[in-house]
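User: My advisor asked me to double-check a structure prediction for Putative nickel-responsive regulator before group meeting. I don't want to rely on an old file, so could you generate it fresh from this sequence?
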Amino acid sequence: MLKRFSISLDDNLLEIFDQHIAEKAYNNRSEAIRDLIRKNFVLKEWEEDRDVMGVISLIYDHHQSQLQKKVTDLQHDFHHHIVSTTHVHMDHDNCLEVIIVKGRAGDVIELADGLAALKGVRDSNLAMNSTGKSLH
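Assistant: Sure, here is a fresh prediction for Putative nickel-responsive regulator from the sequence you gave:
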């Protein structure tokens, strides 16, 4: 059941918020506010080291000596947190690895940081998501 409430905003802040709504193609302010609240709760789950889901993406140099082995070894060290991986050959030199992860936020961050720190990793990103259990 949805509950209605009102908020007051400075004109400038409301203008910025309305621009955000237009850029993201929200149908209305309410859905945009719900989304912002959910995102805040997801961040809180990560800060509190709760069970979370995430996606680690890596772009790395295919030719870097022993890098693929190190990536695989580190994933095996965290095997209980890895749901799935996908490996894409982007071109002759670069690979993209996408790793779907779950578990305590601290463990997921440790894995993501470990992978990002490997020599030959050109770019890495951790998309922090919720399990969805607390977002009802």
